[in-house]
Amino acid sequence: MPLSGSPARRLRSGHTTVLPTMASGDDSPIFEDDESPPYSLEKMTDLVAVWDVALSDGVHKIEFEHGTTSGKRVVYVDGKEEIRKEWMFKLVGKETFCVGAAKTKATINIDAVSGFAYEYTLEINGKSLKKYMENRSKTTNTWVLHLDGEDFRVVLEKDTMDVWCNGKRMETAGEFVEDGTETHFSVGNHDCYIKAVSSGKRKEGIIHSLIVDNREIPEILE
């Protein structure tokens, strides 16, 4: 049965519970007023959940339709249909697909909560979305900068020292300096490098800073 309540909002917690006639509680999905989906919500009457997933190559939007009468399941990634199953006798189960340039594994779990209520949870690489993002915050650094009228999102993967900018893995050159290392790359005509220095504290480990045109860019938390 299609949702008669508000259409789905973006979720970062990784799960939402939905009744077949209306969304329930604080997890009820609704789009923010300032953002328009790339297709008509009238056509997506079974939309039950939307998640934002921040990966190295960008922030990806995952949308899930679930028809609780027909069992229909449709998964969209960044507006592109990845999975469509029109008739499913079993209303619970899971759907697995890939997200982003690195083909990161994602799974939507469909579980019956009670009566006709269903809970939808998203896993990334086998971990709950919340756990995955907590772990990711420890293994990556992210910066957002504005250059030449354009926004850039730079991500450092600390375990591999790969640098991503707006969805592309950058060509980099590493260099040892007196107090640490520098990883150099270019964004347009701008010289950039990520400097790694020891914090001197075991808990903090290595501190990474992004320098663009000799100016330090503040890190953001995703």
UniProtKB/TrEMBL annotation:
One of its GO terms (cellular component) is cytoplasm. It holds the Pfam family FAIM1. InterPro entries: FAIM1 (IPR010695), FAIM1_dom_sf (IPR038513). The keyword GTP-binding does not apply. It is found in: Cytoplasm. It comes from the Eukaryota. One of its GO terms (biological process) is apoptotic process. The keyword Transcription regulation does not apply. Its main location: cytoplasm. Residues 1-35 are annotated as: Disordered. Keywords: Apoptosis, Cytoplasm. Plays a role as an inducible effector molecule that mediates Fas resistance produced by surface Ig engagement in B cells. PANTHER family: FAS APOPTOTIC INHIBITORY MOLECULE 1 (PTHR13088:SF3), FAS APOPTOTIC INHIBITORY MOLECULE FAIM (PTHR13088). Belongs to the FAIM1 family. This is Fas apoptotic inhibitory molecule 1. The gene is FAIM.
